[in-house]
Fold:
Amino acid sequence: SIKAIRASILDIASVVDKPEDIEQHLRFIEDGLMLVDNGRIEWVGTWEEGKDKIPDSVRIRSYPGKIVMPGFVDTHIHYPQAEMVGAYGEQLLEWLNNYTFPTEARYKDKDYSREMSAFFLKQLLRNGTTTALVFGTVHPESVDALFEAAEGINMRIIAGKVMMDRNAPDYLLDTPEVSYNQTKELIEKWHKRGRLLYAITPRFAPTSSPEQLAMAGKLKQEYPDTYVHTHLCENKNEIEWVKELYPEQDGYLDVYHHHGLTGPKSVFAHCIHLEDKEWDCLQETDSAIAFCPTSNLYLGSGLFKLQEAWQRNIKVGMGTDIGAGTTFNMMQTLNEAYKVMQLQQHRLSAFEAFYLATLGGAKSLSLDHLIGNFEVGKEADFVVIDPCATPLQQLRYDSSKSLADELFVLMTLGDDRSIYRTYVDGRLVYERG
Ligand code: GUN
Ligand code: FE
Structure:
């Protein structure tokens, strides 16, 4: 079924190697028309050029004063941590023990996993996020529940069961063999079913034995087009601990690299305290990084060196990292990213920020041929943004002097109130009340 959407339309036409190049690829159509057919972008241009292409039977969805953008891409989030956002007072390792592990235990129950999957996807949609790379728990039921819910609206979700066989409470541990078998079964069941994709998900080096990481590597070899999703160099105590646990490896990233877990479809969350050899390894293997500013500030982990990633042409996407992160909302995440970069004397522009949240995120998930902008033929996942959702936003919008200024105000003041409509697979899936 064909849909016709009339609004201002904004996207970035092409993947870039440096932030200065984004502006020249920016497409902004003040009075635009987008035609969507069968879940795909069929045509984008000005209203004047396109209005005669709309079949008579099609109702025009007109959003005056709103901006249509590609749906946001969240490259690192834990769905079983929504109920513990704002857990007080700890940094990474104590936070995991005191808050995270007890929370994740609840996902052994399939009904609970179902209920929370529905909640989680609703939160993504009300925040304009249409694609996410998601951690489940150690329980395969948790992943089944999430994929079942995502399949119901044909949403592009990448997820995996956590593999963890040591250094956590017994009730959350599997074994190398069990994790291998369960992961394999989940890959066979879900990977490439509709728009769903599977990520092999060892939690992080400290909670996996070498035998388990070898199993993860074996799975990656058997299913080379699956993803690998894990954490890397988030916290200084964590890094010291990895060096004690894996003395035979040449640093934290080498633990993953040695087991065949780096590569173009590997996404490493955080990457705050990387050594030069680790930057080199990410670059050489074309691995991607999830930049999670709200989490990195909240847990006091540190400041991600985004400029270094650009210089080395390493793919970066934005991650909310719920529940160490404090918001599902991508604009709030960008707002904090700006501050993280301010502390390092780098000015994160609105164009760079929106690139990272859309096409850059898609690129870091190797999905830029399918999502991330409005190229004809791509999947029709998009948001209708209200840039004036609050009195303060209205005031600032009226005094904005350029598109860059308007977008910067949006990422500074925007939140879930800015999301007026969300479309997934060409269908309306969220309307602001
Ligand atoms: N490292 C290992 N597990 C986790 C987690 O659940 N959240 C964060 N932020 N870091 C981790
Ligand atoms: Fe995380």
Summary: Residues 76, 78, 231, 269, 321, 324 surround fe (iii) ion (ligand 2) (CB under 6 Å).
